[in-house]
Amino acid sequence: xxxxxxxxxxxxxxxxxxxxxxxxxxxxxxxxxxxxxxxxxxxxxxxxxxxxxxxxxxxxxxxxxxxxxxxxxxxxxxxxxxxxxxxxxxxxxxxxxxxxxxxxxxxxxxxxxxxxxxxxxxxxxxxxxxxxxxxxxxxxxxxxxxxxxxxxxxxxxxxxxxxxxxxxxxxxxxxxxxxxxxxxxxxxxxxxxxxxxxxxxxxxxxxxxxxxxxxxxxxxxxxxxxxxxxxxxxxxxxxxxxxxxxx
Length: 247
Ligand SMILES: Nc1ncnc2c1ncn2[C@@H]1O[C@H](COP(=O)(O)OP(=O)(O)OP(=O)(O)O)[C@@H](O)[C@H]1O
Prior knowledge:
It comes from Variovorax ureilyticus. By secondary structure, the protein is of the alpha/beta class.
């Protein structure tokens, strides 16, 4: 089976700063991947190149067998690669259900909008997936921090997404919220078949996902493997505060 998303020999230089050096990645449909690495190693730059916000200095990005290098972020989003930033992009003055409704509206055709029974079923199912069915009528601005993040993930799911790019999805969350986010992302992959590529610093989150981990260091892929494999790699441990006990 060919990969859904491929990063081929991607470099990104900002003047003399070599943010990325010859990155190759191959992501399969429906699987979860986590990028880890110290501050400044190129994690955000890599996500920005995949989502089209930045052009690589060299190399290419391929999605579902087509080259998407240099395509605008909005076209890439319409093709099914959606990015979530740390600060949630939700409509605070709308209810939780209305927020998800907006995401459904953005993708549905006029005829589909008229088939309300099917739509109500999808809305209810989606709210259940993100654990917010009991909050459907609550204003989004009144949600707890973690719930706002789950709502935005739900909005990405409601759109025609094949790949979700998540930028530190558990930043600022309690341990319990982090654990619930692990469960949500695993459901997104197993039940909804979405590919997830997340950047994360919280190693309990990375370990909980039980996914392929990609360790970056100074713009290069240092190693890939399970959390246990990557976290026991001496170079990875060295990169995190010398012998880093938190990896
Ligand atoms: N627009 C830019 N102009 C110049 N240098 C940049 C730019 N964006 C990123 N860099 C540099 O590229 C390198 C990689 O940055 P990047 O933000 O991708 O790292 P990161 O791993 O996401 O870091 P963090 O974990 O702190 O978010 C850093 O040295 C950074 O200073």
